[in-house]
Structures are given as structure tokens and as C-alpha cells.
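explain this:

___
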Amino acid sequence: MLKLSTPQKIQNLGSSETERSESEMGRRASSDPEANRCVLLILLALTGLLSCAFVYTVLSTAFNPTTSTSTDPQSLKLPNRTSESECCRGVENLEFWGSAVKWGSEFRFNSSEECCSACKAMCTGADGPCLCDSWVFCGSREACGPKFGECWLKKQKDTLAPERQDSGEKVVWTSGLIFGKGEGIVGMETEHGTLHIKLLPDYAPHSVNYILQLLEMRHCAGCHFYRAEGRGSLWDSEGNHIKDASFGPPFALIQGTLEAQGATLNKIPMEACPTIRRGSVAWVGSGPEFFISLANHDEWNKAYTVFGTVLPEDMEIAEKIAKLPTKPDAWNNVNVSVLEQPIPLLIRRIKRNNANLSL
């Protein structure tokens, strides 16, 4: 956790030297307009850095029990890095196999985003079905040679277990998945019901890869919900923020961990694309802590990686969990509500004939 305060002994060290330097700088600034402008720019930059550090601290403490286990969520005040329409990503150094629907030797682009979008364009309607559900792109001029720009569009036999040809640092390909309607839906099973979650591999491919790893294990030992906070009187039933109300606590979310025994979770890179909406499933920092939002948190901008969304018809299950008995706690001076009894959960794949669920 960032420490915004400066130790007193550092503050006092060399104060006389500092005063002389400031006095000297003042004389130079008064006689040199260009130096004066430079000093102003430096002061503005330092002010900005301190502001970002403060916002970072406030946001991270709202999701982390202790400073020793804090993660790295971005500042609430960060500008939007990209529009959601530009979110089409893959995983580097990975080559998917499968039946080709477009041959890369005759189908080329300048970027992996364009290749991803070409696959996405083969989905009819807003959410499939998709004639293309995976893509492979070669984007390094030096490493790819004559294959540079090749974009292979493919169809998998099983989108939740895509066929992999190779992976590793020596692989020059970037690959990604696209889930159409009724595809890419997993079940988060609890004793209070199953939350059906549509995965978003085009937004968060590294995150979805980890979820697919959990599916292969057929268990999620250690996964559970441990925090529950309802919408209170701060958001309406559709997740819209009430005018002039505060933004928490409560923070309108349920939080848990997907740290399963036996699963290897490498640090997931920040893949923030869409803002947090009601039903968004997102990591806290780089995982494995995650949360499901019960409200639209526009005030969080794109500070968290959203890797899935709960289907609307299942949000009542999330609301039920949020109303279970809790006890107050304080995480780094932020008031939170933790469940009196943590709720175990399992990640299950949903059969296609039962997954024709809409967003």
C-alpha cells in the first residue's frame, strides 16, 4: 500500500540547504521567464502524481482486507484508455488450431485488433451465432517474415476448450476467442443458486484463459464469496445511482476469490475495457480476488478488468447473497461488510442446449 505521508526525519533533513536553494531559484525565476515556466510545470507534475497516489490508495483499500495483500487497481481518475468498440484482444505467443474459415495467406491485416474484429464481424446480430469463433494473427515483421499480417479465422469444436497448436515465447502468433450467442457461458454454482456468466474473451483474453483453466480442473477448491454489500438507498433496482447520494459504503457488490487449489494464476495484466455495470464480473487488481457489481459504477471509470457479466435473469441470486447476514469490518480504515459464513462456489461449464440465454 502506498504511504502518502513523508517521515519527519526526511522532511527536516537539510532544511537550511532547501531554503537556500528555494531562495536561489526564486532569484533565477524572477530574472528568467523560461526558467519560471519550467518550475511551474514541475510543480504541476508533482501535484498530479500526489493526487493519483491518493486516489489509488482510497480505491485499493475499498477492496483489500489488509495492506500486506493489497493489489494494483488503477486510479479512479484515469482517463478512458479506449472506447469499448475498440476492445478486441488476444493472447500473445499462442497459436490456436482448428478448422479455417478464412485462410491467412490470402487474408491480411496490420494489427491483431483488426483480425479480431474481422472474426467478430462474422457473428450475426448483436451476440451471434458466429461462423468464426477464434482467430490467429502474426504481427511481428521481423519474426513473421513473409507471414506478417496473416489473419487466420477459425471454428473450434469446443469454444470452452479451444484446440492449441503451440504456446511459449518462441511462438510468433497471437490468438483470441469470440463467443457467440449461447456460447462462452459458465456457471458459478452456490448453495443459493447458479449464476450464469457470459465470458468476454475479446475484452479480457488473459482473464478468460484462467477461467478456462478452472473448467479443466473440474473443481474450484478454495473458491468462495466472503463479502456482501447491497445497494442500500444509494442505487435503484436497475443499478442507477441516486442523485446526490454517496457512493458507499455500502458499495453494491459481492466479493470473493477464485484462487483454486492446484490452479496456477500468473499475474493477469490490466485488461480494463468496459466500465463497471450492474452484473459485471471483474478482478480486484490482478486477481484472484474478484467481485460482482450490483450497480453501475461509472465513478470507477475503467479501473478494473471486467472478464464476464452475469445474465440478467440471475441477478436476483446475487442480490440474495448480498442480503445474507454480515458483520462489520474495516479494511485500511474503509468500512465493509463481510459474510458471517463464507459461501463456497464451483465453476461449471454449461451445456450448449441449456445455454441459449440472452444478455
In short: The longest helix spans residues 33-61.
